[in-house]
Structures are given as C-alpha cells and as structure tokens.
Specification:
There is one protein chain. It is built from ten helices and no strands. The chain is mainly alpha-helical and 257 residues long. 51% of the residues are buried.
Length: 257
Amino acid sequence: MHFTVETLFFLISCAFLAGCIDALAGGGGLLTIPALMAAGIPPVSALATNKLQSTLGTLSAFLAFLKAGHVDIYLFAVPAIGAFFGSLAGATAVQFINPTILSAIVPLLLIGMAFYFLLSPPMSAVDRHAYLNRWGITVCISGVGFYDGFFGPGAGSFLTTVLVAFAGLGLVRAIANTKFLNLMTNLAGLIAMIAGGKVLWLLGFGMACANILGNQVGAWLAIRFGGKGIRPLLVFMSLALTIKMLSNPDNPLWKMF
C-alpha cells in the first residue's frame, strides 16, 4: 500500500502518543487501531500491524523499567508463561469463535475497573498484602492473556488492575511488571499474525520507532513522578475504551435492553 506524507505523519504521531499512554496506563490501541483503519488499511492488517509496533514499543518500556529495578522477572516468570500461552490460545480461538460476546462483556469490566481505581484508597510505591498466591495470579494473568489474543482492547489496564488488586503491588511496580506480562501476550499475538501474513512490515516498523520513543517518555514519567497522575489516567482510559466500544450501535450489549 502507498500512503501520502500527511497520512504517514498522522500514523507516526498516533504511534508516539499511544506509546506514552501504553507505558503509563495501557490502552494505546484505542488510538492506533482506528488511525490505521482510517488510513484505509483492512481491519485484520490494521490489527496485525498494530501488534508489531505495539510489541516493539512494549519491549522498549519493559527494558526501561527493568533497568530502573522495578521488574521482578523471577516472581512473575510463571505468570508470564501463562500470559504467553493464554494469548496464543486466544489468537487461535478467535479464528473459530465469534467474539461478539466479549464485546458485550468488556465494557462492563472496564467500568468496574474505572470505579476500582477511582474509589480505592490512595496507592503508593509500597507493596501491600497479596490476596492471591503465585498460582492464583497465574490463572488471572492467563485469562487476561487469552483475552488479549482473542479481543485485545484494555488488556494492559486489566493486567495492571490484577497486579494492584490481587498481587498487592504498588502502582509503579504494577505498571512495570505489566510491561513484562504484556510483552509476552504481544509476542504470542504477533506470532499468530505473522503466520497469517497480514503484517504491513515497513509501516509497522516506522510506527514502532515512534511507539518506542513514546514508551520511553511514558516510562520516564512513571519512574520520575511515581503514581501521581497515573491513576486518573487509568480511569480516563478505562472510560474512553468503554465509550469507544459502546458507541458502536451493533454492540450486542444494547440488545440486552
């Protein structure tokens, strides 16, 4: 496909902003996927190309948090494996199962997540008591991984919520380890997309450069300022994703009323 200079600038700018948002709160796909489709790219190729640039951007943020000492690879190695295979299973299942049921459930989950971060007590960088052990966390993370491979929007925010609410992590450590887990889900999804031959490689790598830069900026902001401003952003992105999904009149949730 051929794109004008204006279209390329638009897509690369969206990728940069999405990287910043992803590093802080997740949900960058809310910007990049509609932008890719607005540029005339078919939906499956848009998802595949977005997965490429998102994977490389997430890798960049993960390395930044790892260097700063906020990622515990040993603690989350097993959940990361669950995230990878959960996403792989989801990316396989979506080829045979109609995902409309998820499009009805996800807005309700996002609203619940927004209220959790809005009404929960103030969060600090200090870890709290974990409500689930490693295996319980692995089950939850594997479920989110399946969702990411199967459907996708808000997966990073869901991972952060699991780590804060059930693993007892402080917000910055939760976001940092979310990058580790999200990298695994993205890799699995990317492998499935590459196998399908739908990735637009040159555009994907161009957007990835901007997304990497955006993720670096977002990671620096999270490390520099801690949890300040991140929780409101999580609430905003959760509600924005909800509005985006519910704005579709074909969403099966409306058929329940």
